[in-house]
Protein: Bifunctional glutamine synthetase adenylyltransferase/adenylyl-removing enzyme
Amino acid sequence: MSDPSRTSASPARFGLTGPRSEEQLHATGWWSGGRPAEGAEPVLFALSRSPDPDLALRGVDRVREALGDQWSELSDAVRADPVLRGRLLAVLGSSTALSDFLVANAKRWRLLAGTETVDVERFTPVLADAVAGLRDQEAIRVLRLEYRALVCLVAADDLAHVVDPDLPFVSYDDVASQISDLAVAALRAALSVASAQTHRSDECTLSVIAMGKCGARELNYVSDVDVVFVGDGDIGVATRVASTMMQIAGQACFEVDAALRPEGKAGALVRTLDGHASYYKRWARTWEFQALLKARPVAGDEELGRQYLEVVRPLVWTAADRDNFVPDVQAMRRRVEEHVPSELVRRELKLGRGGLRDVEFAVQLLQLVHGRSDEALRITATTQALAALGKGGYVGREDAVEFGRSYRFLRTLEHRLQLQKMLRTHLFPADDDTAGLRWLARAAGLSAEGRLSESQVLLAEFRKHGNQVRRLHEKLFYRPLLQAVANVPTEALRLTTKEAVARLAALGYAAPDGALRHIQALTAGMSRRSRIQGALLPLLLDLFATTPDPDGGLLAYRKVSEALAETPWYLRLLRDEGAVVQRLAALLGTSRLVPDLLVRAPEVLPMLADTDALVGRDPMTVGNPLRSAVSRHNALERAVAAARSLRRQEMLRVASADLLGLVSVRTVCVSLSEVWVAVLQSALDAAVRAAGDVRPARVAVIGMGRLGGRELGYGSDADVLFVCEPVEGATDGDALRYASSLAETVRRLLSSPSQDPALQVDADLRPEGRQGPLVRTFESYRAYYAQWAEVWEAQALLRARPIAGDEGLGERFVEMIDPIRYPEGGLDATAVREIRRIKARVDAERLPRGADPTTHTKLGRGGLADVEWTVQLLQLQHAHAVPALRTPSTIEGIEAGTEAGLVDPEDAAELKAAWVMATRARNAVMLVKGKPGDQLPTIGRDLTAVAAVMGHPPGTDPGEFLDEYRRTTRRARAVAERVFYDS
Structure:
């Protein structure tokens, strides 16, 4: 197939649209007879790929005019040498300023010839040799010329790949390093000239410290070069040398800015080493330490520069110890952004939202906080520091890669914009600047994609990277963990074994040697996981120290970390979400139940970052997701396993919210009760599905006791009754065999051994207790209660409510027992005496031997039994006449009795206070010990932990909690004696 360019009658085929394009091409000798001249096609194709082909051709034509008779040599070289062709046309099509330089110095085109990339090693000798022996304006003129020539070479190498993809691609990092090295060479040349022309310069020693982007070797094409001077000997002479050096470099190459020196522009230009040390130790502000992060000696006396670093670097890595360090840095970034005009904030590549400063501030803040203990982070260049942060686990791998990619993209755009006219600019073209956008897109190596033009592709990429930078900046820069880690003193991050043991003991660890072993196990090796743990542990140690059991918390953390070692998001969550770390430490240092649940339900851990998710919705609906999930399993064992798993998750969620003080005792009890109901419902439904389609009976489960009253605690059993009713055509025997099989299956599967808190289904409140059948028919219950029911059974039925199985059967069961539990006319004197006799017997016989009746939450004086029996006696006596008393809830029963005038309001308040306190304390014992118990601890860390759960934080006297508990229950006991015993 023939090349269409050979038959084209217009240079437009090569992107050349200028009115003089054909004339200019003819003049170069690359166009003849309305088509490309012989051998000129590669040149024209290269022109077409230039960022601005017309600009490049005008530049060629101007160079041709400047060379005159010598043009043919360059023209032939451009045809023959792809490296020269790519470099020359890329520069001429990208930069009017560098075009002007090549026109003014046309014979320097040979600078761009050759096959090797830029040799940065020759920057210093080239400039040094050029100015050797020169002074004043002649030195400035020569330095300016040689410096601009080398900038042109760096730019040519940087841009050549855009014109010819076969030429080597030079990364942003390499280009920034080359520009920085060239600036350093210029500083050295300017310093040599300044020293030579300053009287008595041999009486002083001067070292030039590069700061900012030059110090980090990430300089722009056009940028001020930030420096600080340190001198020795005659400081007055050193100041004159420094000032002269700044003037020479400023007139020849770039502005030299010394405003980052101590006291800024108001301070001395040159200080001694001691002067710098004194200032930074006593007066320096937070931002000055941030600036010192990139300090690097680049010119002058090497030994003095090395000594300067030895003085300031240790100070840099303790800056994060300063009060309000993190907020100060964050506030500084906000102030910088606020100075950008609102109409330009989205176009400002450097200072705007999603701009370069967002990356740089985030990276520097992370370095200064975590670099105190990790020397691998003590890197000056932003991209390299970001890579180190990612490798060390301080930033997620993907976040580090995306942040670095976006930073390089934005810096590349900044370089291209500055090259255009060699002016200091950071402003992205306006959306309606089509020509500017197209030029920048091509200069950045972007091309049209599908229906999107080059300009549209650039805009899409710019917005994508800007949004990504802002998202990651806000994620990392405002990470709550940063302030918490910064609050840990630097000396606590780097301790010898002996010092670590002493510090752990001082923090309150009872077994510091054991704690140190846990730390060593968590941080052993050089893996990314161990690095993240190393960053987290100093903070965690301090957090555990504020909990009731620091040693237990650290041990639990080790167990959880080892159990979740292969869970990819675990440490990432702790690193990125400060609230999770703080809340997890509080939970692990208080509770033995939480870590046991957490290793088997880690999916709850992310909820610690989201208070709304942790608190949950209406506690009456918490069982709905469980029922829905279990219904999808057909296999009985799998369905029950799913139910147990979801119960574990929900119990952990509720326990975490409870320990953190986010939910009320009512929410806890109702949530646990509804989860238990959902488990029973799901298990029964699964058993029915597994039994097959033949169903000779309707079956209902009646909740009793605390389950019926929605008052379950973490360790409560589920008290239930099973009732059945034969369907039409089935006998009572068929119904009982079927229902008994279902009931036994549910009890067996739910009560099977597990590491979770027990799922004990207790049917001992059925007629005849354990001696009676597990399941009865509806009519059997009716007959039994009509003929044999005792007063204690009527009392037990006060909390009965249908919870699972056939709804109609459950409702009819409740209607059937209402006359029994709410007897017409109330109780006679004999029945009242019997209830009081049973209660007195319970008090005397069921309290465990050795138990303290003043701190036993269930059977102790003023405990749960006293309150509940008091309310239940009122219900048996008055519920027939007072419908509001017909409630399975103890608290609602007290409130109804008060409304009806049956209980004095003050007495009601004492009963409610005691019931709430005893319920919370009983739950707290389970949370703290990890196993159910009714007896409050009275000494040791368990008491401290229970007191903390009850609102008495560590550091206060836990005995105050016991005093409060005894005082509250003592008052409730007095009310019970008046109301229940009528004494």
